[in-house]
Design brief:
This protein is mainly alpha-helical. The protein has four helices and no strands. Helix content is about 60%, strand content about 0%. It starts with a helix and ends in an 11-residue tail after the last helix.
Length: about 100
């Protein structure tokens, strides 16, 4: 599953909203550039849940914020979730008649 531009844009907007309350503009710029670079070279198995978890960990380490309570997810689980999503939301296989 490939990342689409809408998902990448949404993730960038969410990250910007999370750092809006910080005062240091230079540090904000560094953070957003690091996030943007992550999307420049996507990995083969990237999907939004796996990147979201990765960004949460990066946010906590960059800003020194305590880690939220979320269980670690392996890449294998993310691939399974992406596969389930594709299976459930796949386009219909039958040819539809349009009147």
């Amino acid at each position: 599953m490939k990342l689409n531009p809408c998902c990448m844009n949404c993730q960038l907007r969410k990250q910007e909203a999370k750092i809006r309350h910080f005062d240091d503009e230079d540090r904000k710029k560094q953070y957003m550039e690091a996030i943007r670079r992550r999307f420049d070279n996507p990995k083969e198995g990237d999907c939004v849940p796996s990147i979201s978890t990765e960004l949460k960990k990066f946010y906590c380490s960059f800003w020194g914020v305590p880690m939220e309570d979320f269980f670690p997810r392996s890449t294998e689980n993310m691939t399974s979730l992406c596969w389930i999503w594709r299976r459930n939301f796949a386009p219909p296989s039958a040819i539809l008649r349009i009147r």
